[in-house]
């Protein structure tokens, strides 16, 4: 059976559903979401010419002084009059430039004696020094944020300065996490005989923590078609139903038949990715189903390449896929076969060193890594010193 290339599988996954519905929320709640509409400036910034420093507003032509101090301009309360020749106005950072003045001399460069101001330093070198021009940051009507942009902390601040108290975003995406496997027990529970603590759901929850999601705990479900189908049915209101485990070809790998028994329509199964080959995706009613492999490293890597981009897409991101960086390989890597490989690596100062173990169950190696080295399918051996593409994973 031919394996679907990673990029094609990503495109098909994102095509399974449109972004979720919109809502208008406060800036505090909008942080970390994606703008659902362009955000225009509702005001000019600065609203007037402002001082960028504490000092005195003067006319450049009057240099080198002296001046008569005739008033004060502070942020929030400007100087009402007009400064004349050889008149200066005491001014503070963020205060409007008084009429009649054009330049700021900083207070470290003058000496004041009563109302008399004399220059003691070099003074401003050019007209307009330390003046922030009205509208120089943005003008009313400018597009501050484009629809589909992430609402980063700086963009939240930009929206506030632009006059907004709330923004239109996509509602939080509901993600159900279902762990499958007879051997699994919840983290922290006693582990008897052949049992294994279930790590995937908590890992995925942590991976989703920086996204606007509402996580639904779908529990740990035994390897039985009826139990799995019932578990899918219980979370069918979710936007995304994620399973881990049971995705491969063994007799106890029942996610695919159980999804079909629950009424899901599968779009693809098995991709050209190592780790992560048995990935499957489809739809169950209005939900997208994403079946991740059970091996913890495989589940992790496919969550980075598929689950997070899917959530970002449903949140309205215009660029939902992870961004790669370039790094210099610290040691040789063998040639690849028919699957793209995502090699766990330790990335520092532009150099990436492959982690000790590349086994898809090796958790210590995964936890030591901060990047995936992305290697194309059917690639020749890579040598130390070569430039490779990497995906940060922390
Ligand atoms: N004959 C073949 N065997 C396998 C193939 C194949 O193509 N032919 N593919 C292999 C690949 S690649 C992967 S990846 C694994 C994944 O298989 P499953 O998705 O069916 O995963 P399971 O068999 O259920 O579990 C694999 C492994 O992971 C442990 N596991 C499962 N869930 C969790 C969890 N929530 N937390 C921690 N660990 C978990 C499970 O105990 C197993 O050890 O299949 C290969 N086999
Ligand atoms: O592709 Mo599996 O995901 O190698 O471990």
From TrEMBL:
Read off the Pfam families from this record: MoCF_biosynth, MoeA_C, MoeA_N
Gene Ontology MF annotations = metal ion binding; molybdopterin molybdotransferase activity
- Does the keyword NADP belong to this entry? no
Query: What EC number(s) has UniProt assigned to this enzyme?
Result: 2.10.1.1
Coiled coil spans: none
Reaction(s) catalysed by this chain's protein? adenylyl-molybdopterin + molybdate = Mo-molybdopterin + AMP + H(+)
Please indicate if the UniProt record lists Metal-binding as a keyword. Answer: yes
Could you list this entry's UniProt keywords, alphabetically sorted.
Magnesium, Metal-binding, Molybdenum, Molybdenum cofactor biosynthesis, Transferase
UniProt pathway annotation? Cofactor biosynthesis; molybdopterin biosynthesis
Q: Which residues form the signal peptide?
A: none
Q: Ranges for the MoaB/Mog domain?
A: 176-313
Which GO biological process categories is it annotated with? Mo-molybdopterin cofactor biosynthetic process
Q: Which cofactor does it need?
A: Mg(2+)
GO cellular component terms listed in the entry, alphabetical order: cytosol
Do you know which InterPro entries this protein is assigned to? Answer: MoaB/Mog-like_dom_sf (IPR036425), MoaB/Mog_dom (IPR001453), MoeA-like (IPR038987), MoeA_C_domain_IV (IPR005111), MoeA_C_domain_IV_sf (IPR036688), MoeA_linker/N (IPR005110), MoeA_linker/N_sf (IPR036135)
What is this enzyme's class at the first EC digit? transferase
Describe its function.
Catalyzes the insertion of molybdate into adenylated molybdopterin with the concomitant release of AMP.
**Family indicated by similarity:** Belongs to the MoeA family.
Q: What is this protein called?
A: Molybdopterin molybdenumtransferase
């Amino acid at each position: 059976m031919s394996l679907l290339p990673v990029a094609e599988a990503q495109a098909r996954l994102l095509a399974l559903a449109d972004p979720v519905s919109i809502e208008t929320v406060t800036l505090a709640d909008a942080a970390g979401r994606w703008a659902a509409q362009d955000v225009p400036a509702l005001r000019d910034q600065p609203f007037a010419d402002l001082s960028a420093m504490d000092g005195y507003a003067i006319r450049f032509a009057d240099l080198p002084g002296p001046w008569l101090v005739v008033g004060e301009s502070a942020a929030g309360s400007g100087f009402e009059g007009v400064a004349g020749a050889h008149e200066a106005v005491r001014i503070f950072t963020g205060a409007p430039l008084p009429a009649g003045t054009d330049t700021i001399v900083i207070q470290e460069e003058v000496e004041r004696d009563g109302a008399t101001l004399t220059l003691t330093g070099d003074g401003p070198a050019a007209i307009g020094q330390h003046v922030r021009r009205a509208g120089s940051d943005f003008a009313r009507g400018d597009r501050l944020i484009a629809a589909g942009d992430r609402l980063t902390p700086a963009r939240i601040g930009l929206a506030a300065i632009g006059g907004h108290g709330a923004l239109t975003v996509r509602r939080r995406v509901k993600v159900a996490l279902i762990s499958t496997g007879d051997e699994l027990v919840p983290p922290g529970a006693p582990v008897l005989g052949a049992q294994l603590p279930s790590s995937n759901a908590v890992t995925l929850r942590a991976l989703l923590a920086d996204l606007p999601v509402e996580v639904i705990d779908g529990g740990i479900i035994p390897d039985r078609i009826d139990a799995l189908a019932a578990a899918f049915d219980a979370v069918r209101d979710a936007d995304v139903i994620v399973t881990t485990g049971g995705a491969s070809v063994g007799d106890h790998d029942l996610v695919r038949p159980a999804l079909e028994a629950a009424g899901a329509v599968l779009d693809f199964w098995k991709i050209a990715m190592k780790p992560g080959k048995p990935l499957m995706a489809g739809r169950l009613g209005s939900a997208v189903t994403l079946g991740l492999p059970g091996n913890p490293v495989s589940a992790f890597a496919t969550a980075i390449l598929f689950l997070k981009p899917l959530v970002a897409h449903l949140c309205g991101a215009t660029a939902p896929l992870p961004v790669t960086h370039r790094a210099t390989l610290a040691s040789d890597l063998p040639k690849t076969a028919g699957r793209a490989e995502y090699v766990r690596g330790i990335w520092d100062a532009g150099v990436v060193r492959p982690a000790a173990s590349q086994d898809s169950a090796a958790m210590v190696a995964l936890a030591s890594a901060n990047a995936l080295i992305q290697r194309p399918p059917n690639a020749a051996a890579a040598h130390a010193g070569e430039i490779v593409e990497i995906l940060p994973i922390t």
